[in-house]
Amino acid sequence: GCTSRNEPGESAAPGASGGTEGASAEGLTIAFVPKLQGIPYFEAMNTGGQQAAEELGFEWLYQGPTTADAAAQADIVRSFIQQGVDVLFVAPNDPNSMAPLLEEAQAAGIHVATTDTDAPDSVREVFVNQASVEGIGQALTDTLLEAMGGSGKYAIVSCGETAANLNAWIEVQEEYTASEYPDAEIVDVVYAGEDQAMATQMATDLMNSNPDLTGLVGECTSSAPGVAQAVQDAGRTGEVFTVGLGTPQSMLPYLESGASSGSILWDVEALGYLTGWAGVQLANDGDLGDLSGVDNEALAEAEYDEASGVLLLGPPTVFTAENAGDYDY
Amino acid sequence: MTAVTTPTTADQRREPSRFRDWITGGALKDRAVLLLALIVVLLVAMAILDGIGLTSGRFNSDYLASTLIAYVPLALLALAELFVITSGRGGIDLSVGSMVSLTGIVFAMLYQQVGLPLAVAVVLAVAFGALLGAVNGFLTAYLGYPALITTLATFYAYRSIALVVSEQRPISGPEISEFYSAAKAIELPVIGGGLPLVPLGVFTFLLPVAIVAWFVLNRTTYGRKLYAIGTNDTAAQWAGIDTRRTRMMAYVTAGAIAGLVGVYTVAQFASARPDAGTSGSGMALPAITIAVLGGVAITGGIGRLSGILLAALLIVWLNASILLVVPGNEGAQAQLLALGVVLLGASLLSNATIRRRQGGLAKPLSVPGTAPGAK
Amino acid sequence: MTDTAQRTDPAPGQGPTPRLEMRDISKRYGGVRAIRHADITVRPGTVHALVGENGAGKSTLIKILAGAERPDTGTIAIDGHDVSIASTTDAIALGVQTVYQEPQLFPELTVAENFFVGREITRGPTIDWRAQAPRMLELLDTVGLDRSLASQPLGALSIAKQQQVSIAKALLEQASVLILDEPSAILTDAEIEVLFGVVRRLAADGVSIIYISHRLDELFRIADEVTIMRDGETVSSQPIGELTVREIAERMVGGEIAEGVHKEGEHGDLVLELEHLTLDGAFSDVSLSVRAGEVVGLYGLVGSGAAEVGEVVYGMRAASSGRMRAAGDDRHPATPSEAKRRGIRMVPANRSSQGSFSFQPIAFNITIGSLGLLGRLGWVSPKAERRISDDLIRRLAVKTPSGRQPIGAMSGGNAQKVVLARQIVEQPRLLVLAEPTQGVDVGAKEEIHRIIADLAERGTAVLVITTDLAEVQRIADRILVFRSGRVAHEFPPSASQASLLAAAAGAVDDPAAAQTATGQPVADLPGRPTPGEEPR
Amino acid sequence: MSTDTVAPAAAKPLSLRRILPPIVTGQEIVLLGVLVILWVLLGIFTPAFLTPASIGPLLVQVAPIALIGVGMTFVIITAGIDVSVAAMIMVSAVTTARMLVAFDIPAIAAVLVAIVIGAALGAINGFLIAYGRVHPIIITFGTANLFQWLGLRVFDSSTVNGIPSTLEFFGRGGAGSTLGVPHSFAIAVIAVAAAWWFLRYAKAGRNLYAIGGNQNAARLAGIKVQPRLVWVYVVTGALAGLAACMVIATGTATLDQSVGSGKELQVIAAVVIGGTSILGGRGSVVGTLLGAILVQTVVSGVTQLGWPTQLGFLFVGIFILVAVGTDLIRERTRRRA
Ligand SMILES: Nc1ncnc2c1ncn2[C@@H]1O[C@H](COP(=O)(O)OP(=O)(O)OP(=O)(O)O)[C@@H](O)[C@H]1O
Ligand SMILES: Nc1ncnc2c1ncn2[C@@H]1O[C@H](COP(=O)(O)OP(=O)(O)OP(=O)(O)O)[C@@H](O)[C@H]1O
Ligand SMILES: [Mg+2]
Ligand SMILES: [Mg+2]
């Protein structure tokens, strides 16, 4: 026949080359498909994953689409299925669309899991979560309102209109602000896409149309420096405070100048490391809750929730002018 | 008195070899043959690479078949572009991606939220796509807007509307998740046992549309009228063709096909995304690129279904092959390189061969299949 | 410079060095051998006519001289020196100025700008309009165009005026060889007289002129020598006085030409009746009728409004007022497709822009006007298509190896036959023909006239709208002379050319006035559509 | 209908004004009117709109679009189009940014680098279009992919961090403007003025209209069409390079690979709103500048009014149709008259 799918043991045999049992990671291939390549966030996860690969001795594959596009991402996932990797991690652009594909991967004998963004209604075995939705939303709100003095008007500059995780964080921010900071108010949520210049312009427009605005949130890694830049350009550092989810290197100049009061993120490299480690555990049917063997202090607070299948990195980190320089991404 | 008659000496030109003549004249001129040759070259090259172990995964028919899931929307939208570009007068549709997003949302609302039966929801979504296309068509054909401008405007407008009506959240739910079965790979009945699993969308979406489109383009008076208005609009008026209605129908057709792709993407992604057709670089530019690669003349009047189907297949398989050969981020980047090289190479090559054969026949510039016949 | 005495020197090849010698020129387009081993010698200060059937290779030959095409073989010598002409720029530098068959102009630019495109007089980087203007205005006067046109966008001018602009433009720089490729095809007689005056003056100044035309009679009034081409070869070259029109025509086609197509006969019912029909800005109060089997000629100078009558009858434009009764129906057809349903067909005047689907096959071009015949319910049967087109290709003697050839590669006359074929796929009740043989050679003209007579004999009512006097006399049963948007007079075909011309030029009862009238500019009415412009 | 009625053949003096098209086109007046109305309305409904703090950044945002719009207007006048400008911005910006970070080159050198890279990429477009004789939209679709690949290779899967403020002269901040006029916008205006003069009075400029009106006739008239076309695309590339400097300066200290994306459609939108005919042969750079300002006004206005930002582009779409529609109507009445 024209197909090899009826010949067992061909593509449907993960780890055919290694096949070693036990705790060893030798010969394992673990693949990770990010939402988008080339942005510091996912490249840092890649760095962490590679570090884990070196230390634990598996092969780490990383390939992402050039645009944050669900269809392009699916093509890459399909090629990894074809390559017969042992474990496949995905940070899905669109959780719903990834679910059937993960099912296909599992049927081909591959361990499937998500990281960074979950695909809740899928067959994924574990979700490696950087921080809880509540944790991020609350940290953003607390950090900003601390700078704003606990009251005032602020606005959010988000990115892709449809990004599920950003929208979830915004929801938490809205609820948490209403409940915890009655004197504070979110006046607007705008969407700038992945375009820094657009984020900057929108932040400028927001400051102009709301003269009493004292806070801005940059909801993703491209708008976080964008809003800080807008405040700096307008010469209103110290009057308008910003926080955002920015990578340390891109935020460092603004943290130092005071245009940004803090960047809420987590140790992204550690997240990559944790992903790699979880992959090894999955392949060996190991215990995801047993992090005792892990020699990485950034993972100290990681914990596994068996019921939901979520492996949590820990609470988010607040980067400030003092500690942002310690990270090289 | 002096009748200066020149002696007619025999033609001294050497007859070019038949094969060379066929290659430079007939074969490369015909875009379908060129594309087919490229596909064969690609498959052979990949088989060799696979044989000597340079690919990271097996390059086999299962893989090629599984990538067809991405082939369906690409080929369909390129077909939509074929209709509008062939209608001439600068016909082009930049809004197909936005129409995909918007009809996908409408379909999901009707199917998931209103709870209409699947068939009804599909028909309504396609009709809605046709309506969106009719807006383009009316502005372009009846009010005289240049198509690039009409569809640039509706690209922005439809995209906005899709985001606003969906409150920028994807629509999903149990019915829609199940609807994935319309796109997923299946075993062909009867003969399927020995063949790879082919995505169902190829049969439920692409094949019927392609067959209908082939007949419309080649065997109906509408097809004749479409090619006529694309070749020479004024002459078409003089020939008694209702050029406006014919042109309008091209945009309506493109809208309806985009509507169908909207439904398909809902199945493919198992959710309706308000940015399904516009995220990243969007679906319109790739569709136009495929159409052009498939030999559709941007000046109108020329374009064949076979070119579209083969061009889309070439690109889908080329992209899939690259992912197996080039690891890491470079792989996804190399897809851009490959698309650029193939597009430029094919248009420059076939244009050069046409020019060599037909000397100066000015119009059209980059069109295969039309060199005035020697022979 | 050469004096005019030499123009009477009868023997080519003698006397001083020829101004131009083209030897052994060949050119192929793919498989089409447009020219094979053509030779032409033009002496200084002479007008050299170049004639030949459609597709004989005249335009190709002069395009090679003008640098617009490269020859495959052959040499060109100017004033005895071999030259290489690789581009239009080279040709212009050698003093070769060209007026192409299709005016090569810029519709969005003004007439003034059109003059100087490519050879602007500059002061620093900017164009020096003050330096350019006087010469341009002088040239507008020379060709008989109004000076106020200088500031008009060219696209707003009639096609005839555009042609005059392109002639004037060629005079801008001192030429040693001036090529005129069918300059007279779309000009009125008065405009042609002006053109002839210009040509004579230039020749007297020593300029050599190559003059291509299908109006053989006019050549005797202007040309000194004639070169005849047939099938890409130059078959003879001699002083024109040695030949008659008939002899030239016979050499062009390589055989004898039959005479006369006009037949007397009974005419049937009224098919077309116009009563007080008016189209604002074009014609007014036009009443005429055409019976089945009758050929009515509508003769008028360019811009007389006759052309628009056809467009209204065919539904391309809506009349402003008046009554029209066509094919038994009182309504004006609103669109050509409605006209078609009622059996009205029209062959437009401009075959390339209004008639041809250039890169579509001949069969497509023939059947596109009668798609209903190709199958039922919007279906197209390739077999029916082939049957219909092959039949017409045969009946009209279209020269082509097969119906699959694109029409764009055909010569003018053959393309015209294809456009005509489209309208007679089904025998029409009323056939309107606008300039049916413009730019068509004598052989093809003959055939087209015979086809028209044949259709009339089988009961079609024919309305021929033409600016060609000889044509209307040959084929019409009745001739309506159109002037200033009105029917000025009706004549039998036996009327003298002089009286027809006089009526068209505005001096109805005085044939002597016709002569003087032709020498003067004739008032044009606005309203002739420019090519490419959409009707309505 | 045509207006070539016979007038008495009196020798009237012919003024320069009558030979060239009117100094200000109807489209420009309409656009100016629409802009004034919009600004007044926005001034009324959002008190802060008509303040320097709002107008300044808006004009800075307009500058790169208007600047590339100048080149794109040239291109479209010649009946071409360039959909690769976004990719050219990307390549130019990332290379320049990398050099700023690595070598701390001075501003003038950075600007030169950016322009030279843009011009080189434009030359690739120009040569392929002029000598390959394939429709420009096809060529630039192809090169857009190539340039994007090139840009991504230069990015090498990371962002450029810590870009020094060398180019702040073009920026949004205090150093980016003099007497309240942003430098980048001033540069765009100067480019527009120069291009206006060039298109109207210079031989090479007028010839672009001829090429766009009828390329074959232009060739027969002895215009060196192909070198001119190459030059037009080189200019567009060079301007995209200069615009890349503005993009770096108005962005943050970090540059990521989304830089430039979507700009090609924005530029084309500005050009067509400005009244340049997509069919070639007709167009104005002043219209392009006004078109660019209009688009940004609509987008910023929607944000400032507090309307959902997703609606902004709906209005952009409507404005494109309205602006081009008025042009169509005027054209039609002109023909009827
Ligand atoms: N660009 C072209 N491509 C292919 N064939 C061509 C081309 N131009 C001309 N030909 C062919 O070359 C031959 C000579 O054409 P040419 O235009 O020189 O004829 P002509 O004598 O000027 O005819 P007419 O009187 O109709 O203008 C014709 O058979 C024509 O079909
Ligand atoms: N304003 C300008 N800015 C930049 N480059 C220009 C400008 N004007 C002209 N050039 C460049 O200089 C070249 C020469 O232009 P110029 O108008 O002098 O041509 P030319 O030598 O007179 O050509 P032609 O023979 O066509 O008249 C052009 O091809 C163009 O590349
Ligand atoms: Mg000719
Ligand atoms: Mg001719």
Automatic annotation (TrEMBL), chain B:
InterPro entries linked to this entry: ABC_transp_permease
Q: Name one GO cellular component term.
A: plasma membrane
According to the record, the segments passing through the membrane are: 32-52, 64-85, 91-111, 118-145, 197-217, 248-271, 283-302, 309-328, 334-354
Task: Spell out the molecular function terms from Gene Ontology.
Answer: transmembrane transporter activity
Q: Which Pfam families match?
A: BPD_transp_2
Mind listing the UniProt keywords for this protein, alphabetically?
A: Cell membrane, Membrane, Transmembrane, Transmembrane helix
- The organism sits in which domain of life? Bacteria
**How is the protein disposed in the membrane?**
Multi-pass membrane protein
Record bears the keyword ATP-binding: no
Q: Indicate whether Calcium appears among the record's keywords.
A: no
**UniProt main location, coarse:** membrane
Name of the protein in its database record: Ribose transport system permease protein/erythritol transport system permease protein
Automatic annotation (TrEMBL), chain C:
Task: List the GO molecular function terms.
Answer: ATP binding; ATP hydrolysis activity
What keywords tag this UniProt record? ATP-binding, Nucleotide-binding, Repeat, Transport
How is this protein named in the record? Answer: Monosaccharide ABC transporter ATP-binding protein (CUT2 family)
Q: Region (Disordered) spans which residues?
A: 1-21, 324-353, 510-536
Give start and end of each ABC transporter domain.
20-256, 265-509
Q: Where is the composition biased (Basic and acidic residues)?
A: 326-341
- Organism this protein belongs to: Agrococcus jenensis
A single Pfam family it belongs to is ABC_tran
**Origin: domain of life:** Bacteria
InterPro entries xrefs: AAA+_ATPase, ABC_carbohydrate_import_ATPase, ABC_transporter-like_ATP-bd, ABC_transporter-like_CS, P-loop_NTPase
User: What Gene3D superfamilies is this protein classified in?
Assistant: P-loop containing nucleotide triphosphate hydrolases
From TrEMBL, chain D:
Localization recorded for this chain is:
Cell membrane
GO MF term list = transmembrane transporter activity
The GO cellular component terms are:
plasma membrane
Chief site of localization: membrane
Topology term for the membrane? Multi-pass membrane protein
Q: Which InterPro entries match?
A: ABC_transp_permease (IPR001851)
Q: What stretches pass through the bilayer?
A: 29-51, 58-77, 108-131, 137-155, 176-199, 230-255, 307-329
- What keywords is this UniProt entry annotated with? Cell membrane, Membrane, Transmembrane, Transmembrane helix
Q: What is this protein called?
A: Ribose transport system permease protein
Q: Which organism is it from?
A: Agrococcus jenensis
